[in-house]
Amino acid sequence: MRHACTTLLLALLAAGPAPAADGAGAADAVARGAYLVRAAGCKACHTAEGGPAFAGGRALETPFGTFHTPNITPDPETGIGRWSDRDFVRALREGLAPDGSHYYPAFPYTSYTGIRDEDLLAIKAYLFSLPPVRRPNRPHALPFPVSQRWLLGPWKRLFFEPGPLVDDPSRPAWWNRGRYLVRALGHCGECHSPRNLAGAMDEDRFLAGNPDGPEGEVVPNITPDRETGIGRWRVGDLVEVLRSGMLPDGDFVGGAMGEVIDEGTSHLTDADLEAIARYLLSLPPIANPEAPAGGR
């Protein structure tokens, strides 16, 4: 069913450009896209320290090598200024560049694939409203065999299923909203889940923490396990962490999660923060003493 939806979407996009939105409609899309970009955490990863926002160049240290995030401003030469709607949707839905080459999953299309069509295009509308920044991308620094990009095709056939994420009608609206924010937009599993030897998320231990997280950090367990996760936290505790970074014991989160909060979750509505918190606390608890909550 997911493949069918994706095929239909791409067929519609290939058929020709959508009618131009009127001024009010375009402004609405940009405003909604700005919020979604916050929820998706784009700025933190695509901005180098001291560099212009969204112009890329940030180095992501991973167990598989160092990836440098690309420029996603609308500069036509070094950014995404020449991308069509179809190019943008295909990149986030299928992990494919406009020239058809595969992206590394350091770009979390494995989660972004769940984002709905209208939200993807609103994100693009916002990014294209920004001033273009001319800044060439830096090449990744990857060891063999990770450096062999052609291997990503077989990798995707083994570990990747394109979206979008469909609501579960048997669940309440807050649960579906929380799942969408956690699994697709917020792509929380990309950092908070352990990975197998091939670098794919371990879905059986989704959100159970990752002792080998990006940039060498231990990423905490955010399942409701009472001993190693967040099972003793209340909804209000989680909302406060996402809003201000303050943990239930009065300490504050740091590292990459601090940036996620500053640039992303602290700008979300109370309703969305509560949906995230309630969804996380509704999941099955998974013990993981190697990556306890709070990274302790």
TrEMBL record:
Domain Cytochrome c: 28-131, 173-284
GO molecular function: electron transfer activity; heme binding; iron ion binding; oxidoreductase activity, acting on CH-OH group of donors
SUPFAM superfamilies membership: Cytochrome c
Main location: membrane
Gene Ontology CC entries for this record: plasma membrane
Database matches in Gene3D superfamilies: Cytochrome c-like domain
Record key words, sorted: Cell membrane, Heme, Iron, Membrane, Metal-binding, Repeat, Signal
Extent of the signal sequence: 1-20
Location of this chain's protein in the cell: Cell membrane
Pfam families, alphabetized: Cytochrom_C
PROSITE patterns: CYTC
InterPro entries in the record: Cyt_c-like_dom, Cyt_c-like_dom_sf, Cytochrome_c-type_DH, Membr-bd_ADH_cyt_c
Coiled coil: none
Protein name: Mono/diheme cytochrome c family protein
